[in-house]
Amino acid sequence: MAMYTESENISDWLEGGRAVSMPVESSRMFDEYLCTLPWGPSRLAWSKGPYSSFNYEQHGWSGESAVEWARAHRFMDFDKAFVMYSASEPGILCSSRDAFYELDYLTMGRVHPAYICAANEDENGPVLSFERFAEWDGFAVLRTPVS
What per-residue string of b and e applies to 54-87 under the rule 16 or more CB within 10 Å gives b? Predict the structure, then answer.
């Protein structure tokens, strides 16, 4: 079975340097963090706590509006974002702006949720901040917890 990061759109980003592939271990660790949170049948149980949502369709599929929503929720305080497609395959690391501006493209053809977390890089490489995350429903809606 092919990995999502092998799809044409993601391959183009990887080859062009707009994203780098992250090891499956990063996806597994992010998934382990997410599994500590309340879940419904197939995604997080957002009704269990306060959250903010953003609907791309209601905003005319504006990547700029999505970036502003992400900024309001401090994702833009981080240089990078990690996009996890599943716990058993590699994810990608790209700019925070690209992750939210191009999310529909980065998940094209998927109908399952994808998860994004904030990240920075230090002298040892990427540092993922799992607690600053958003869920993409695979269609039009992003959600992130708020405190």
Answer: bbbeeeeeebebbbebbeebebbebebbbbbbbb
Q: What's the mean pLDDT in 134-138?
A: 94
Could you give the CA distance from residue 119 to residue 117 in angstroms, rounded to a whole number?
A: 6
DSSP-derived 3-state class of residue 114? strand
Q: Cβ distance 93 to 22 under 8 Å? A: yes
Distance CA 93, CA 112 (A): 19
Average the pLDDT over each of 49-53, 105-109, 121-125, 134-138 and give the range with the smallest value: 105-109
d(CA 118, CA 96): 7
- The predicted model scores a pTM of 0.94
Say how far apart CA 85 and CA 28 lie, in whole Å.
11
Classify residue 44 by its DSSP letter.
B
Cα distance between residue 136 and residue 76, in whole Å: 17
